[in-house]
Amino acid sequence: MTDGMNARALQGVRIADFGHVLAGPYGTMLLGALGAEVIKIETRKRPDEQRVQHGGGASSDYESSSNFFEINLNKRSVTLDLSSVKGAEIARRIVAESDIVMENMRPGVMDKLGLGYKDLVKVKPDIIMLSLSGYGATGPYRGYTAYAPCFSCFGGQAELAGYEDAEPNTLTSSCDSRAGTAGTFAMLMALNLRDQTGQGQYIDLSSSEVLNAMVGDQMMDYAMNGRSPTRHGNHDAIMAPHNVYRCTGNDRWVSIAVASQAEWEALVAAIGAPEWARDPDFATPLSRWNNQNRLDVLIGEWTADKDAYDVMALLQAQGVAATPSAKAKDLFSDPHLVARGAIAEIEHPKLGTRKTIMPPWKMTQTPPGIFGAAPLLGEGNDYVLRDLLGIPDAELAQLMEDKVVY
Amino acid sequence: MAQNGGLALKVVELCSFAAGPYCTRLLADFGAEVVKVERPGVGDESRTRGPFLNDDPHPDTSGMYLYLNTGKLGVTLDIETPDGREIFRKLIADADVLVEDRAPGEMERLALGYAALSAINPRLIMTSITPFGQDGPYSDFKAYHLNLYHASGAGYMLPMNSTSLTREPVRGPGFLGEYDGGMSAAVATMAAVYWRRHGGTGQHIDVSKQQSMMHLERSQLRRFIDSGTSPNRTGMGRLLESLVQCRDGNYVILILSSQKQWEGLFKAMGEPEWGAQPPFDTQAGRSAHYPELRDRLAAWAADYDAQDVFEMVQAYRSACAPAYTAEQFFQSPQTVAREYLTEYEHPVAGTLRHPGLPYKFSNMPEVERRPAPQLGEHNEDVLVERLDYTRQDLVRLKQAGVI
């Protein structure tokens, strides 16, 4: 366990993962990247949406979804029909062997299945259970359903994203990932508290609240001054220039942000000290902020015939913050990310060898990693049901026959 | 340390602005003892950032500072001076975790790099949060939140559901990417604390904000691996969701990602005839006629207030939500019922009521809720009570500008 580079931070920690779609599964995937054993409990009777939904409809192929792959790495899959008495009982036996239970079903569903916290503490008194939902497990909207765009809307983020003169923006599925990451933190906190107190924990996480807490500083304007903030495109409350500017190529842009007079002077020097930069309208931080729309046009004229990565190199050399608005294509072959080992290639029996993004931490003693691809449905049945729970072969055959293991 | 199982962890924070302070505040929420080290006379950059109480800039009334630094002890220390570094090393000798956000190489320049600090305290977990990580070709690059949002690939995909590429890609809300970096660091730090408790040692954790943000977008970015085409801000113009404006001018997001979601929405709309006929009667048909579908949904929603649409659609168990402003969120019956907002007194800013913890723990430790520290508020508590300096030493250190 303390064996230098081979150690994993969460070695010996087991998660019973009742998650589906994105937020919950993302959260347990991070625990897997840190070395925990994650057992995904699912069934082909009602497959995880992420295995089958492809925008235009449902697929009958449960094993070729790259989206499922991306958020279920490092897991084992056991197939159980939880709506059967026997299936729920086996699930409780898995929980009895686990440290943490994660679920993101609609509040109340786990209780109905006999898998609520009060049922699970009976089989594992110090169990840690995380319930991750859109609006939380209490309050008048507790039964309401939500996908990521709902969290970002309800939590006040959508109002703060997008163009100043256009509608709010709901952001991408990253809001699911954010809720999941907050769940990961909460589970790790509970694990450390359990070490101190010997007690488990029931955690009720509201994804909307997670997103709201992550724009907490923006909320302070309402908290202190009664003003609800709104969206401003790329612009900032203080800094200018602070925008993206069009470059050569197809839909290529570079972001440039200037915080100080020194950075402004460095920017002016880097772009060849043009005549317009001596305009009194751009002489001070306040005047630049007040005249930023005109400033944006002028900087955009300078970037228009340049490559976004060339602009980054030129400006960064002078200490000016500039980065391209990177496309996925750029990132997967970016020299910096590749040099840092941020991109890995993973084998999957159906999807083949795929490039994917590594966990975002480097740890000198417990390097995180991708230790296994996303599981095929039931790929871990043998390990979980036979090895871990010791279910005899004949009984297992019967369970499969009865579609309890399904 | 809190009596009822508060997290027994001594943390030193050498951070500014949002990412690092958010990381340690997450720990302080559970009772970790966080000593925040700030530059004498200046302090955390967020103190100059606002929003300010009554629009009156004051280092102790910045909303960002107050929100991100509750529950911490504050000391001032100039680590550019030998005395300041000596005090810093004494703090580290007694700490479990150091969270720092200096540019790569800065801590080494001050002889406070991981090698030097782990020699003082081998069990130290040092978490370094930087824009691009400790090594690699961009490690010395400068990046503010805007730049990170775009460098991570997240900005290029916003605003999602754009109808064309005419307008520019934009950053996310507030300083979201900074919080992402802080949350990511908190996850790795707590995993390292767990490992250390279970037979492990101290270690150095290198957190890249760029990669933290990019990792959150993996479900989008993988589309390039699937198809060879990078997803852009129009790429989601498919059958997943639709934002509609309601009678009262407020917006609601409707979810359309599956047949099941559609069925609830269809019933909530009163089963309109068009919804039961081709092409709108199948997921594939709705997907192929998405713009027309959006128009029909907008026309329906325009007859109701946002809150009505929310409740009508949810009554049929389909997902949707209103796009709340801060005021609407603070006043939502859900927010009120869950007691999500936290309220307390701050000696300078007065009564504060702002976002609290987004998770409820059944065995939550009883943690003393202290307001964010004023600049150098706990110099005496920490230096005299904890590090055995005398009050006379404090006077001399203050005179020399060290604290």
Low-confidence stretches of chain A: none
Ends apart, CA distance between termini of chain B = 25 Å
Mean pLDDT of chain B: 95
CATH architecture of the largest domain in chain B: 3-Layer(aba) Sandwich
Q: What structural class do helix, strand and pairing data of chain A support?
A: alpha/beta
What is the makeup of the main sheet of chain A?
6 strands, parallel
Name the pair of protein chains with the most residues at their interface, and give those residue counts.
Answer: A-B, 160 and 162 residues
Spatially, the strands of the biggest sheet of chain A line up as 3-2-1-4-5-6
What does this entry look like structurally?
The complex is a heterodimer of chains A (406) and B (403). With 406 residues, chain A is of the alpha/beta class. Chain A has two domains: 4-214 and 340-401, Rossmann fold (3-Layer(aba) Sandwich), CATH 3.40.50.10540; 242-327, formyl-coa transferase, domain 3, CATH 3.30.1540. Helices cover 38% and strands 15% of the residues of chain A. In chain A, the strands form three sheets. Chain A has a six-stranded parallel sheet with strand order 3-2-1-4-5-6, with helices on both faces. In chain A, strands 7-8-9 form a three-stranded antiparallel sheet. The longest helix of chain A has 24 residues, at 174-197. In chain A, 58% of the residues are buried. By secondary structure, chain B is α/β, with parallel strands linked by helices. Chain B folds into two domains: 10-216 and 338-399, Crotonobetainyl-coa:carnitine coa-transferase, domain 1 (Rossmann fold); 251-322, no CATH class. Chain B contains 17 helices and twelve strands. In chain B, the strands form three sheets. Chain B has a six-stranded parallel sheet with strand order 3-2-1-4-5-6, sandwiched between helices. In chain B, strand 1 (10-14), helix 1 (19-28) and strand 2 (33-38) form a beta-alpha-beta unit. Chain B is elongated and about 85 Å long. The interface between A and B is large, with 160 and 162 residues.
